[in-house]
């Protein structure tokens, strides 16, 4: 082992052990954070998530939450966009925001010596975004350019159509980034109203990792989030499940190969069967080079360069969904192989050796998601958002290790079921 390898392994081991020691911290204004103190490096990483995201977009205004997220650091308080960005750059402060279907959140990373200024800028971005018209039009132009470019991207078009067919008439069926028409129609008033609804201190989850003690963190929480309103009720997102199972849909694009998106039922992260379903998914298509689909579709038949599946868990829906791409004339063959492998795994289950290898990989690789302060903060805030408990990191590998063949079969029955898939192909397949 080289000295560099030793340093890397030591750093990873240190980082991976610290998340399990997270402690809850409560500020004077009632803002809770999960805190991991680590004074080794003079850095602080903060991650935060507010309940409510693109599913709260007004009717006909898809993309509002995403535009809001992109505008929060485009000027705030007394600083226009240029001045705000210059203050961030002058102190090497990294601040970003993002929006998903169920949440809007962000992250902040700063040196300890610039922490006060970084928290001040975060507070301004959250509570006093300017929404200057020039900034709105600049961000709108960027979003529209991206949307127009994506109209020729088979992967994007397949994914959009898939979710529209899976959740018709439901907020999850709308594209989070909006459409050319919807983004063009978003007004400043829409953004102000969305900001007022979503950014509330009563709905925020926070994680802080790094060289900050509990007393300093308590002050930082109130400074960053204390000026936000407590927040009222969000629009209820009705529970739904994937529709159209058994259907195969083509999005016509003149490209030599078709991009495929396919999916079926799932279980949410909070469900007791999520961990067995997670192990099952790793065996089916989640393991990059070892999964059954990778072996059958790519290695044995050369049908595709990549193929995989993952679990999607939203607040009001969940699914198992997958992806691949293959020549137009081999789409039907590829789908047959995928369907056959799902049926075989459902009926026969994995071998004992296959199950053990999956569990060994999933438990052994878990620490790799905690090798930086920012990764730790994001993992913690996601766990908090899902309501899994502050001890989840300490429990997680034990839950995976306890998965049995009976658990796998139960999860397969609930997720893969009868094997029917909703399939969308973007391209010109000769047969489906």
Automatic annotation (TrEMBL):
It comes from Methylobacterium variabile. The keyword Lipid metabolism does not apply. Keywords: Hydrolase, Protease. Pfam families: Peptidase_M16, Peptidase_M16_C. This is Zinc protease. Gene3D superfamilies: Metalloenzyme, LuxS/M16 peptidase-like. GO terms for molecular function: metal ion binding; peptidase activity. PANTHER family: METALLOPROTEASE (PTHR11851), PROCESSING PROTEASE (PTHR11851:SF224). One of its GO terms (biological process) is proteolysis. Residues 185-361 form the Peptidase M16 C-terminal domain. Coiled coil: none annotated. It comes from the Bacteria. Residues 44-178 form the Peptidase M16 N-terminal domain. The keyword Cell division does not apply. The lineage of its organism: Bacteria, Pseudomonadati, Pseudomonadota, Alphaproteobacteria, Hyphomicrobiales.
């Amino acid at each position: 082992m080289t000295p560099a390898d030793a340093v890397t392994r030591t750093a990873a081991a240190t980082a991976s052990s610290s998340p399990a020691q997270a402690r809850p911290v409560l500020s004077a204004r009632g803002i809770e954070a999960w805190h991991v103190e680590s004074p080794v490096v003079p850095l602080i990483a903060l991650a935060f998530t507010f309940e409510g995201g693109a599913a709260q977009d007004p009717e006909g205004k898809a993309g509002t939450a995403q535009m809001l997220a992109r505008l929060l650091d485009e000027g705030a308080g007394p600083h226009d966009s240029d001045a705000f960005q210059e203050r961030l750059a002058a102190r090497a402060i990294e601040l970003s925001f993002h929006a998903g279907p169920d949440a809007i959140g962000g992250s902040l990373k700063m040196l300890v010596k610039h922490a006060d200024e970084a928290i001040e800028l975060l507070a301004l971005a959250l509570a006093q975004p300017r929404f200057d018209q020039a900034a709105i039009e600049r961000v709108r132009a960027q979003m529209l350019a991206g949307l127009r470019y994506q109209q020729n991207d088979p992967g994007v078009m397949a994914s959009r159509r898939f979710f529209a067919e899976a959740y018709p008439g439901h907020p999850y069926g709308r594209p989070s980034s909006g459409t050319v028409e919807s983004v063009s129609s978003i007004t400043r008033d829409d953004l102000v109203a969305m900001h007022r609804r979503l950014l509330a201190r009563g709905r925020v989850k926070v994680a802080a990792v790094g060289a900050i003690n509990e007393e300093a963190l308590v002050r930082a929480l109130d400074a960053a989030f204390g000026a936000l309103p407590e927040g009222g009720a969000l629009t209820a997102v009705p529970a739904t499940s994937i529709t159209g199972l058994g259907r195969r849909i083509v999005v016509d694009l003149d490209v030599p190969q078709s991009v495929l998106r396919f999916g079926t039922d799932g279980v949410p992260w909070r469900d007791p069967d999520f961990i067995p379903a997670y192990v099952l998914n790793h065996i089916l298509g989640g393991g990059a080079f070892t999964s059954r689909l990778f072996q059958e579709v790519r290695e044995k038949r050369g049908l595709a360069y990549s193929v995989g599946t993952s679990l999607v868990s939203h607040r009001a829906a969940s699914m198992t969904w997958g992806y691949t791409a293959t020549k137009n004339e081999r789409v039907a063959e590829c789908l047959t192989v995928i369907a056959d492998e799902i049926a075989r795994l459902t009926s026969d289950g994995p071998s004992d050796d296959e199950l053990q290898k999956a569990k060994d990989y999933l438990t052994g690789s878990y620490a790799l998601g905690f090798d930086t302060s920012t990764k730790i903060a994001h993992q913690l805030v996601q766990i908090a958002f899902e309501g899994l408990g502050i001890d989840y990191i300490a429990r997680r590998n034990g839950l995976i290790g306890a998965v049995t063949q009976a658990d796998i079969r139960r999860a397969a029955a609930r997720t893969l079921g009868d094997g029917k898939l909703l399939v969308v192909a973007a391209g010109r397949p000769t047969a489906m």
